[in-house]
């Protein structure tokens, strides 16, 4: 009896999770290469400005944080720019790169003797020099003396500090600060845009880590898919993903808070609404009843993945593991009972067709805003074929009706951060039209970029209501058919792509076709036996 009960709680079939994952060693040459790219870019910038190639790029790493006023230390994760250049896992460090010589310097915190009692061995400075493959290591309290003694041959050295705005969060990076910094000249404008642009194009070693994070996440998503069944809680699906990623993939961190959205939510929640302005539908925030699957960032503390899964629900699982700072971002949508009904299949296949259309068109030189519009158009065409909407697709696109069904952007740059920086470099402005205003980048694709492709189709009452109330927009909708999907929620399909010279490579390996998903949920192996091996997947070797 006990054995039967355990199996029934674990999923449709007994859980026999296995894994072929082997966490790779991370060469510090990866971060040395990142430093080299920054040096090359700084030299080019200073040369163009007729400035001497002197000074130091100086960054301050992250600090450990306690939970509010308590002494409980939250699990530390390094500041991303600092991680990119130095790969340091520990808190409290500073790092510098001498622009003239290329020397790399770490400054480690001087720990008190009782650290060894409570926290473990106090590592000597040579340990950090060897581990992180830098040229010099000193203590943080020696920064002023070291910079003055070693880097003042041409007068007071200029410190290029990291300060700039994230176009995703609106927050500003924190420039390095230490006692005595006033003794040096500082530059707050040069480093951030140059270093951000370095992060946009990934090296072969960076891609290998992103691929591994995708391998882990793909495998974990499939394990969730196999174990999901009616009667479980959303947080159980989240826990399966987290467990598999950590146990088999050595991924202690996730790239972002897991989104495990299923079925219909009858509670009041903040959602998106729209008003008509200049013949476009413009998003505003309202309070409305929404389906969980149409809450785009469900899973946060106020909506904590705690609903019970019901037979007939669609699941939208948006989860990604992180390995050695580099992340993944994958979304799978499927029916909890393992079988698509006709309405679920219609919406799912509309999104899948958009997902595949974008991937088949991607190549260097294409504008991301055009890829977003391609996804919108493809979804609208599919909905028209099913009599959910009617009329001229070009007219719908002109009125931005694609944003009624897909209010978010098509995708974003991915790397050390889920929303990697560089989406809007100087000179690019965010569009203002509905849907397009949510794009995290409108750049042209370049070889070496890693970007997510995540089209979605949602039936959000707060978006449909204003469209119905608008006399021009309303005529495009078959409202009788729309009513059938009101409690449906939505579908999102998300894969991580890197741009190659000829096109792109999908780093994600999850079942996507409806028949593949149903087969995997019924116990079929994935990937199929005849799948391409990793050695043949087109990833660059360095």
UniProtKB/TrEMBL annotation:
Keywords: Dipeptidase, Hydrolase, Manganese, Metal-binding, Metalloprotease, Protease. Its cofactor is Mn(2+). Coiled coil: none annotated. Its EC number is 3.4.13.9. Residues 26-170 form the Aminopeptidase P N-terminal domain. Homodimer. The keyword Acetylation does not apply. This is Xaa-Pro dipeptidase. It comes from Triticum aestivum.
């Amino acid at each position: 009896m006990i054995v039967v009960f355990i199996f029934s709680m674990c999923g449709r079939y007994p859980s026999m999770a296995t894994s072929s994952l082997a966490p790779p060693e991370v060469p510090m040459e990866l971060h040395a290469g990142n430093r080299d790219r920054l040096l090359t870019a700084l030299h080019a910038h200073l040369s163009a400005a007729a400035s001497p190639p002197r000074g130091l790029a100086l960054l301050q790493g992250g600090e450990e944080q306690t939970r509010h006023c308590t002494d409980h230390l939250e699990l530390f994760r390094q500041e991303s720019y600092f991680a990119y250049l130095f790969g340091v896992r520990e808190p409290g460090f500073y790092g510098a790169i001498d622009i003239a010589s290329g020397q790399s310097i770490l400054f480690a915190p001087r720990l008190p003797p009782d650290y060894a009692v409570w926290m473990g061995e106090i590592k000597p400075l040579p340990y950090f020099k060897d581990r992180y493959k830098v040229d010099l290591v000193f203590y943080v309290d020696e920064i002023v003396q070291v910079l003055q003694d070693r880097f003042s041959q041409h007068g007071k050295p200029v410190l290029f500090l990291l300060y700039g705005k994230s176009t995703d969060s609106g927050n500003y990076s924190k420039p390095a600060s230490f006692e005595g910094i006033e003794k040096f000249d500082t530059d707050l404008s040069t480093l951030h845009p140059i270093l951000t642009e370095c992060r946009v194009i990934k090296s072969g070693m960076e891609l290998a880590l992103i691929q591994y994070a995708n391998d882990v996440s793909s495998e974990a998503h499939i394990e969730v898919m196999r174990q999901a069944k009616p009667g479980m809680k959303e947080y159980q699906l989240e826990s399966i993903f987290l467990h598999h990623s950590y146990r088999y993939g050595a991924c202690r961190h996730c790239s972002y808070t897991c989104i495990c959205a299923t079925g219909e939510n009858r509670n009041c929640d903040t959602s998106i609404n729209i008003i008509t302005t200049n013949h476009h539908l413009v998003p505003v925030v309202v309070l409305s009843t929404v389906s969980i699957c149409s809450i785009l960032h469900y899973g946060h503390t106020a909506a904590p993945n705690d609903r019970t899964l019901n037979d007939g629900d669609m699941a939208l699982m948006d989860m990604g593991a992180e390995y050695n700072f580099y992340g993944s971002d994958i979304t799978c949508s499927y029916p909890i009972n393992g079988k698509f009904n006709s309405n679920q299949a219609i919406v799912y296949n509309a999104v899948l067709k958009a997902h595949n259309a974008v991937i088949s068109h991607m190549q260097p030189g294409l504008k991301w805003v055009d890829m977003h519009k391609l996804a919108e158009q493809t979804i609208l065409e599919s909905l028209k074929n099913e009599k959910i909407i009617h009329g001229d697709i070009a007219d719908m696109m002109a009125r931005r009706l694609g944003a009624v069904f897909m209010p978010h952007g098509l995708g974003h740059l991915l790397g050390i951060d889920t929303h990697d920086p560089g989406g809007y470099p100087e000179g690019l402005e965010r569009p203002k039209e509905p849907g397009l205003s949510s794009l995290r980048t409108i750049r042209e694709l370049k070889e070496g970029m890693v970007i997510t492709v995540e089209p979605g189709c949602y039936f959000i009452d707060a978006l449909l209501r204003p469209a119905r109330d608008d006399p021009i927009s309303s005529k495009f909708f078959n409202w009788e058919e729309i009513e059938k999907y009101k409690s449906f929620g939505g579908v999102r399909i998300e894969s991580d792509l890197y741009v190659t010279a000829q096109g792109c490579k999908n780093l994600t390996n999850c079942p996507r076709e409806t028949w593949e998903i149903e087969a995997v949920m019924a116990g079929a192996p994935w990937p199929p036996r005849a799948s391409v091996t990793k050695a043949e997947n087109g990833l660059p070797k360095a």
